[in-house]
């Protein structure tokens, strides 16, 4: 079956063959994709109250149009990653129902009763169970796909299934390269441009550190990463957390996933500066965000070590001191990646609505500068932090006086 | 064509079809393999003075017999690596004439007019041009297959052709794991055993550093390595250097190839202690060895940087300070790998004839202890050396008084 592009009618016809719905079901499809890369249909049997999501990769980047072609093979990476997530962290990823690599599509559990976490956070929603959930997601995916646990030959064969050249290239460019100079693809708030030109782009010491992080991203095949673990890749409800959009999955440094989610919390933390919200509400929400960051990291740390103590296989990693330096490096790198993703979301190609929701461009630029400054400080000081509590204290103390609320 | 094992007659029949020899040539074949993994035939047309080498992988480790099966796909890695060496360093690798992946064989230039470098070195032969040659080999293979030069997508696709699970596993076990405990596969001089049990195997701090190097070996996909660059993988003549046996090739840390060749020079350096050779000859040869090490490293360094200045592609690596830290890390890691390969060659599965040529086991054990002690010191102090001259001075000063000649 060769590739053809779905529409709502074709999507209904296709899923009828999957045995998921009854043969006589009256199905309704709705295209809900707001991403750049894919079509996403929710297909529903209203009577039986059953639904699924059909996601199909487009052979180009949607927002740019057909001028930026992108192989649809990324669906294969997403399906491969989902299969692993369904094994290792079944509660925290959508259930894969069907895959068709030729059509570049996957059918999966419909999670539309949940809200995108990023939208929840701009409404100041608190997700009390999120640290428990995401820490398990991180600890299990990052430990059980590493050489700590896997047979090294099996691990290399699995890594070979995730040679995700195109999507890695996007991250390499958009996260680690373009933001550090006046690259064409950057998406720059005109009010921010003077700061970039006069200050930010002159910081070669920062670009150097970003390049070191890029090197790790490009060469350190430690664990299977989600690869794009921001708050826009997570559905969060009262008691549920579901990580989706795993098409960026590849074997890279474990710290990248950890740092990316923390960085997205910090973007939200900074974004309240410049928003017209009651100051006590902001104080309270920021307290919640920082507490969440501490819990995410410490629970991840604990669960990762629990996995290690219970299930580490390689005799070489059991020698005195190995675990400590492994975890320490992971922490330091995570703080570095955290800073890098904060920076890329201010003036790189893709932004976060947390900050871009500030409509006044002047005000927005001031908030963006605080994001950039915090990102920079985290990168530059990453070796100095002893633990996540120190990072959080640093965030509180170092955003400049006018940031304090 | 499915796999069948060659013998001298079948080898002659096979090469007749390659068009390398004239149709009427009278060919003579001789099996000369002394390795553990392969059959090696030299096939010769005496009249035309033409010859080639036919190398076929065996589906098991020869020395152990059929009890240690090993996939013959390693020939594919060797052929793939040779193709790249023929492009990047044509003068310093055998010319690939033919490959047949189904039969797990390659035909290549006959280099039997040259001597195995290791044998030359135990005869105190000097290879005056070797540093020039091997430094080019290293600088070109390690630079032009890295992300410094290659398009990152092409590099990842190339790396996917070198997912060399079985042979990497051999290195992971035999170099970085087994020597640090009483592993079954170790090959231990009984006179050395007390030192191992009472001293060496109690050094957890050393095992920790070896495990860190193992982590780099397993996860850092920096450049296409030869993967087994010791003096037994090199033919060296007066004016010629040919690196062969690239079946261990994979994408790993560039420092591994650099450190391995230096480590083999240092094993030879130590080996003269305990040999019945004129003391002035030893002094002279050791001077030659240390000078060679300095030249190998410094020429490599210079050529690698020349390649960088001329051909680096990625804008991220041009930022101030990046090159310096990249090269510094490569140097430090190389000294670490150098120490690790010295250690594995004393009591791991595979030894060097340099030291094992000492027939008196008691004497041999004393020399082996000096190899182990030097290897350890290089690993433990690797961060402290500023340059290769300091390493060489350290070797001279730190082998213990009784080592000085």
From TrEMBL, chains A, B:
Entry's Gene Ontology BP terms: methionine biosynthetic process
EC number: 2.7.1.100
Record field: transmembrane: none
Family annotation (InterPro entries): Aminoglycoside_PTrfase (IPR002575), Kinase-like_dom_sf (IPR011009), Methylthioribose_kinase (IPR009212)
Domain Aminoglycoside phosphotransferase: from-to ranges: 30-288
Pfam families with a match to the protein in the record: APH
A molecular function GO annotation: S-methyl-5-thioribose kinase activity
Keyword entries, A-Z: ATP-binding, Kinase, Nucleotide-binding, Transferase
Enzyme class: transferase
Protein family according to the UniProt entry: Belongs to the methylthioribose kinase family.
Record's subunit section: Homodimer.
Protein name: S-methyl-5-thioribose kinase
Phylogenetic placement of the source organism: Bacteria, Bacillati, Bacillota, Clostridia, Peptostreptococcales
